[in-house]
Structure formats: C-alpha cells, structure tokens
Amino acid sequence: MDIYEVLKNDHKRILQLIMQLKTGEDTTERERLFEQLSIVLDEHAQGEEELFYPIVGEEDVNDTVVASAEEEHDQMDQLVADLEEIGTHDRRFTQRLEDLESVFRAHIDVEEHLLFDLAHRELDEMDAQRLGREMVEAEPDLPHQAMSTAGPQSPL
Fold first, then answer.
1. For residue 50, is it within any domain?
2. 66, 86, 92, 152: which could join 57 in a potential S-S bond, CB 3.0 to 4.6 Å?
3. Which residue segment(s) compose the domain that 101 sits in?
4. Rounded to whole angstroms, how far apart are CA atoms 31 and 21?
5. Domains in the chain, number
C-alpha cells in the first residue's frame, strides 16, 4: 500500500469513527469511540507531519499548503481537547463533534487534492510505497487494510 492509499484509508476510518460517535446512544460506547478517535487522530496527524509533509513542503510554494494543513491539525487538536472537556454525555458534544468533522473534511479536501498532487511530483512509486510502510508503522492503532469506499460519508 502506498502513502496515498494509507492516508485515504485513515481518512475514511476517522470519518467512520466520527459518524459512529454522532449516532451512538450508549454512553460507554461513545466514550470508547471518542478515546479511539482521539488516539487515531493524533497518530494520523503525527505521521503526516513527520513523514508526508516534509516531502511535499520542500518547495516554498508548497510550504504554504503544508502550513495550512498543519494549522488544521492544530484546530482539530483544540476541538478534541474541547470534546474531552465537555464529555460525551453533554448535548454540546454533538455540536463540537460536527465542528471537528467539518474541519477534518476540509483537511481531507486539501490533502487528497493539493498535497497528493504535489507529492506525486516529488515521489516515485517506490518512494510512495516506502512511505506507506513507514506510515503504517507510525500508526499502530489504525487498521491499515484497504477500506471500502462505501463507508458512511456525508457531503461537505
């Protein structure tokens, strides 16, 4: 699996967790899902920042796009911290979760369109495969088998 497949699968898995959290009613299950979402988002962002972004951010013009993606990571970190403080039982949790989903979907759009295009200019297939393996190793809490594109997704 190359880096693009790994990142797309991560994005799908994170969206699935968000959807499960939005529709879940059992408090214990929502707490478990939120804990998992928090871990997975953190591992994913860390892997992107350490492995993927340095490659696409080598050119000055690309650095702006990477800086924007990193700002989105910071926004998501803050939203996760807010969600943790609010707690899954609070009715405000769902609104904040929707904010997180919105930021994450915007992040996916930038990453899978702009950053992937930039990366394709920098990486040959062997490098993309190597980075994919490194990303999988950096994310032990994310399942990395190919995911169906039919997972729960709502429009941006």
1. yes
2. 66
3. 3-138
4. 9
5. 1
Spell out the SS3 assignment of 65-123: HHHHHHHHHHHHHHHHHHHHHHCCCCCHHHHHHHHHHHHHHHHHHHHHHHHHHHHHHHC
- How many Å apart are CA 71 and CA 74, to the nearest integer? 5
First-residue to last-residue Cα distance in the chain: 27
* Burial status of residue 22 (CB atoms within 10 A of its CB: 0-12, 13-18, 19 or more): middle
Please state the pTM of the whole predicted model: 0.86
Residue-wise pLDDT tens digits, 41-64: 999 999 999 999 988 876 665 778
Question: Is 97 inside a domain boundary?
Answer: yes
Q: Is the C-alpha dihedral spanning 13, 2, 103, 79 positive or negative?
A: positive
Structure tokens at 112: 């899978």
